[in-house]
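User: Structure please.
Assistant: Input sequence and predicted structure:
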Amino acid sequence: MTTRTYRVQMTGQFAGLTPAVSAQLRDEQGEHDLFLAAFTSEGTFTYTPTLTRFTVRYLLEVSEDSAAEADEAAEVEGELLAGQYLESRGISHRPLTVTVVCMDDVKVKRRPKQVMSRHRRSSQEEPRPPPDASLEQDSVYGLNRARRTPAATSCSHQGQKDVTVSHRPCDGAVP
């Protein structure tokens, strides 16, 4: 007998909701937001604020004689759990779409190891020419643009004479 772990997701559409159920769902929408979605053994119920679509997610452990039987049992069990939950809340819906993923069958693709570390690689490469002094990298957009150098001017400031103030000329554009 094998025990396998499944993520079961049922999606559906609301149909013919009573005004009382609609009002209750709208009031509780913050507790059932998509950002709170998770696969748990208790189940997670999420839906859109417009009350059009919903999703019920379960994390199930199924023990069966074979993998094929476990796959089928997980699908049936997930659909039954979702149906019972929706019925207990008085939520009417169109037929559910069931998706089952066995976590034991999921393969994690690991990143390949780099042949050389960054430090070794940089010391073996040819030296790069120095960057052009008239260009600087714009950290926000990643664009090269002409370097603006502050202009120095002399002015008297609050009674002090011969104070040098450094400022950038403003052309109205955001740098």
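Confidence is low (pLDDT under 50) at residues 146-157, 163-167.
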